[in-house]
Fold Kojibiose phosphorylase.
Amino acid sequence: MRGPVTGDPLDRSRFPVDPWALRERRYEAADLGTTETLFSVGNGYLGLRGNVEEGRDSYAHGTFINGFHETWPIRHAEEAFGFAKVGQTIVNAPDAKIMRLYVDDEPLLLSVADLEEYERSLDFRSGVLTRELVWRTPSGKRVHLRSRRMVSLAERHLAVMDYEITLLDADAPIAVSCQLLNRQDGQDEYHVKDAAMGSGFDPRRAANLSGRVLQPSVAWEGDGRTVLGYRVATSGMTLAVAADHSIETTDAHEELTSVEDDLAKHVFRISGTRGTTTRITKVVSYHTSRGVPAVELVDRCRRTLDRVRDTGIEPVLQEQRAWLDDFWARSDVEIGGEANAALQQAVRWNLFQLIQASARAEGAGIPAKGVTGSGYDGHYFWDTEIYVLPFLTYTSPSFARNALRFRHTMLDHARARAKELNQHGALYPWRTINGEEASAYYAAGTAQYHIDADISHALTQYVTATGDTAFLGREAIDILVETARLWADLGFWRETAGAGEVFHIHGVTGPDEYTAVVNDNLFTNVMARANLRSAVRHLRALQERDGEAYARVLTRLELDEAEIDELSRVAEGMHVPFDDNLGIHPQDDDFLSKEIWDLANTPPDKRPLLLNYHPLVIYRHQVLKQADVVLALFLQGDEFTLEEKLANFEYYDPLTTGDSTLSAVVQSIIAAEVGYGELAEGYFTSAVYVDLADLHRNADAGVHVASLGGVWNALVSGFGGMRDYRGSWTFDPRLPADWESLTYRLTLGGAV
Amino acid sequence: MRGPVTGDPLDRSRFPVDPWALRERRYEAADLGTTETLFSVGNGYLGLRGNVEEGRDSYAHGTFINGFHETWPIRHAEEAFGFAKVGQTIVNAPDAKIMRLYVDDEPLLLSVADLEEYERSLDFRSGVLTRELVWRTPSGKRVHLRSRRMVSLAERHLAVMDYEITLLDADAPIAVSCQLLNRQDGQDEYHVKDAAMGSGFDPRRAANLSGRVLQPSVAWEGDGRTVLGYRVATSGMTLAVAADHSIETTDAHEELTSVEDDLAKHVFRISGTRGTTTRITKVVSYHTSRGVPAVELVDRCRRTLDRVRDTGIEPVLQEQRAWLDDFWARSDVEIGGEANAALQQAVRWNLFQLIQASARAEGAGIPAKGVTGSGYDGHYFWDTEIYVLPFLTYTSPSFARNALRFRHTMLDHARARAKELNQHGALYPWRTINGEEASAYYAAGTAQYHIDADISHALTQYVTATGDTAFLGREAIDILVETARLWADLGFWRETAGAGEVFHIHGVTGPDEYTAVVNDNLFTNVMARANLRSAVRHLRALQERDGEAYARVLTRLELDEAEIDELSRVAEGMHVPFDDNLGIHPQDDDFLSKEIWDLANTPPDKRPLLLNYHPLVIYRHQVLKQADVVLALFLQGDEFTLEEKLANFEYYDPLTTGDSTLSAVVQSIIAAEVGYGELAEGYFTSAVYVDLADLHRNADAGVHVASLGGVWNALVSGFGGMRDYRGSWTFDPRLPADWESLTYRLTLGGAV
């Protein structure tokens, strides 16, 4: 196991403790990639990385719109039947963050600027990113600058930003160039440097697209408004972005506008006088679609902008504050005790980024990096259901419902994929944007059939917590039944000595990707069993509640009583392997017969293992990328005794590298349950700081959304001891010694 | 199991029985791809597909030089550490076969020509491909044509061809355009149609190269000689081809020569008169190199051609005949009985193509398609060692030695690859041309570690049969030791109830590619044990024979007595799984616990399975692409009782699809041994006609070299009952009922 982090890993002279904001007091160019991620603002639909207003220096420019992607044919070096065909990559949307500043015609460039004061702050209650600094220009004039940036949580398509400039010493000409810049295809192309990655590749990062991606279809300006519209070359998606510009100043000024295919500029030239504060405001709207012509999207942008033009941005800021007040009132987690202020800040940053990743995803999933980076190509994984949805279900159930409805829209794709894989029912893609399997390495992708059970788990949890049986009966039951069908067809019955006929599931990969394509993966079998049981239970409940609706479901799904009985029989016949000698559950049939990886003697420069060893070498050993059995102990906790949990944790924990950020939070939860309090704290710290302290050295590619969600789980279910088993909620808190209290809020019952 | 073929599958009105030739009496365009393969001529270095002299119609033009390849970076859709990096693809060398004929300016085009007579014949004793036909031109003039083509077995770099033209009815202008044409990059580009393949891909075929591959560096003509020279763009290999042209006629004629980068033409224009026979001769030489400038290769071509210019082609034809007389004297296999003439012909075609694939390979391996096609990219696999080398070892040991020396030249590459895969010793690439692993799908490639044991097996067999201990001590022992080291490091000891410490090998793929990455694959373990034992045995023998040489080997390999003892201990501790219930050897640890594939209910349009099911679906079931345990029963036959062989055969045979052509020959051998005589015959027929009757519908991509070699094995070891176990040869023949006799020849003892 990777040694859990202890203590506060942040440099507090640079990032002072503040329970309600992430603040930065010193500009540093060395870790731009990370801080761009940390200071991202977004709403789950639109995300703006924390790039500086000036447009440079930058590590990775990023403006991401959830689900706005390009497709490309996956070329396999060696092709085989059923391999994923359609690659999907999130597109870097035109950059509207740019407000370049010139004083005496000299550009502000933070990396070389003489800064007398500097602070950047992301406020968790106002939802605004603010930068304030005093710049001493090359000619010695001091300029006070304050800029703000916000993506509206209340208005899905809206972002606002402003820039205040005050000359402190002397008059000077000022220019501010407000731009919309297509970086995806322009010269200033988006590019993640991978200097940190020695081995020259990193499968966790995004594939590059080649050729022009955004094809210009609209370029327009007038009345201080600039507009660009595009069509994505192959996927056919469309986008429009529009910006309104305004100025408040007593100084003389002029405005110039120009628009080209990849660049719209609105420039303010001000004859700045000492002491005068000039304020420039830029209001931006993005609209995207799967195929509506961009000109129509321009109309939508116009409507969004017109509303703000009428009122100014103050109401927008107030609305944001109110939205977040509401959010914190139902979602905050408080750790009691003065000594825990730093941790409190980290926890709130996690929760704030979590809601920024998910609030307005709506017709889309929640990407592994939210809308803060292009890591993992902007794809949706099981991260959403297992790591993020518990938080949404228990604090913002309507957002959880949206995420589950999105899976329902993908059901036909999942049915087709099951068929292609020779199975009945539905098989959800391991990674996707548009519903098609995009995992090019099936052993750690398509083979993770457990995605079906994960979705069903989240769905069951949502329905149980909210009582939203209407959604269940109308749509969601289809997911439960089709995934249950997959399991019944995928596995098979085999006579087992002493146990009669037992149901086995072969040839699957569990959550732990350091073992692939195995038989009877414990996690998969246990989760599949729960999937099957949930389908049967909810069918029976529906039958009792509303016979007509039940009949409609049977018809819609071509389902009959015999098949429902069979699903039940499969669930109860499911093989759950157990090793009597060790008193533990083998991760799979073969796991315990493998050679044990010598982690103690694996040098740090050989970590993470996936970047330093051939999969064959890794798969041959007992070594885990991430919790697998231990995750089952949490999600299906009432299926295991405490003694089993303890034995399993003690066996697997030392074999777990934590090379995945999905691991520490789970290890923390079970460590807390089985009595390893210090370990629980250590893993929790590793999770809560994974991005803030860049512990996995890839925060530059975006926040780790699963870890953000896992942090909430670790707080509520780990230290907070909350468990929910089919409508019964229990609480058995195990607080760290120096936590005076832990307060969390849950929303239960009451369908949304 | 695929039903074995019974009876004679050839249309004898078109392909008449002839024990010493393959003859074709009717031209057909429908199966051009197959007949181009069947009528190929080659010598293991140079191969010319049976394309018509006219250059069209053609299914796949092909001129292949063993090992002459281009490289390209393998792009994996999802990259991982240690994945193969360097793609290698055999290049279609400039085509020297072309002698286009025009009478009255009308081109001969067989697919539309009015043919009064037609016969094509590949003679196994003269080694010459002859075509003879009478063409009635559009204007009604009949022309008698006879052409011959031969690749010299005695002169590695030489091919000769001639064309005789006789106007039977009337005078007419005749033109013959003799060409050297770069088809790899020209407009008339080589392209295998894949109409037969419904699913749009076939991993058994070659990857395509894009961009110009052959970069022109020489283009010259003079004195009836044309020369072209090239450098391969990325691999840097070089090639020169030169042709001499001469004419014998009493008719008036002129000659015109032109040379461009991709085309050299030497045209004869003849004022043809009725009754006169005009003969045009083209003598061609190819030289290739890993990097010598093409101009230097031109000199080599010149020397080869000058020798023939002095003597004419008659001595070349005689030399060919003498070479083949010698070959048949030591290699022929005769099946007694009039009724078996057709089978006799098929057997000889197999042996003839086998020697055409291997005789002059020399510094190269023996590609899976010989030099008859670009299937499998021209790569070398284990096919050479397991399927072809027994034939060479027992009939042409010096060719076997060349093939094994080629593996020795790759040893450093294999050492580097072992290191990359985290192991000591040497790991040979599953598929390669230049020594680097080129298998882009590791589960059915790199994971086939058994390649190491296969090479050692062939080496051991060669040394035992020939007594060539000099080669062993000087070079080959290094292979035995380095591969043995790989096994000792790859596996591990585990306490096993009742058996003490047992040695296990995990995470490998056996010969059967319908199961991948398993633990304790029986074939691998048994072959690895033999590998380890052979290394120790030959070290000990060397120590006894020549203490100084032994000491040199220890120094060279940094080997000591303790390590040799450890190799021995590993061999004797090797786990050989056995299932007491079934009385059989499980193919691997998990095999018997899998669901059984329902082959009986798998429709023909879903065969072969690999083109119709995702690997995950196939791997999940008990179903075999090819013999696995059953192959071990043959290669390590003295390690199994007859009872075990019978039980294993009866268990695995019904599960074996035979989707690989490497399977039938092995099934035939063991069927013969365990008493399934009819099955043995059926499998043998399936193998001997695999190309002749295009049973796998991919003969167009080239001959199946492993099957060619397997046919000899099935004759000699199957029906002939020959076994060789460490220097003891036994013979226990089991002839089919209607075979009056079976005669085969072996060369034993006497180092080459």
Chain B touches chain A through 49 residues (CB under 8 Å). Chain B has two domains: 27-60+91-305, 331-744. Residues 27-60+91-305 of chain B form a domain with the Beta-galactosidase; Chain A, domain 5 fold (CATH 2.70.98.40). Chain B is about 30% helix and 20% strand.
